[in-house]
Amino acid sequence: WEHWSCAAAETGWLAATWTLITGSLWAHAAWNTWWTWDPRLTTVFLLWALYSAGLLIRQTVPDAERAARLSAVLALVALVDLPLIFLATRWFRGMHPVAPAMPPVMRAVLGLAAAGFGIVFLLLLVERRAQLAAAHRLDRLEWETSDGEPDRGLCRSLGRNRVVCGAPGGAPTPAPAAH
Description:
Blueprint lengths: L1 H30 L7 H22 L3 H28 L12 H42 L34
């Protein structure tokens, strides 16, 4: 499950970053400002900050199991933030309209774009999970065939062009010694 968690955090961070960037571009054209502390914008920014903190924890906390637990707590807080993003326009007065009036054609295009984005998100998620699993297997094989010290935290080897999440439990369990 750790690979799914890491892949979801990384892919979610990418989606939140893209949303903030494109939202700022749209806001500048529509409202003549790059940013306002609108409730919806603020809750999306909070989501992005939680994703960023979770990824930072996974890369900096030496104990991979502790890093995974801390990241899981942040993921739960981010999960609570998701409905707040949707409900922010209904609960608080802000720049975003509650239900924007759109012609049917525009609504259909928006629906298709959202579906396409969802498919791309799922494809990125599945592909990233596969990359993490492959990197984990490679690190395990490298560790089993080396005489050196194991890495503390699976797949954290930045020098080998792999920047991936750590896995709980630290280094792989060594094979039993032959007698």
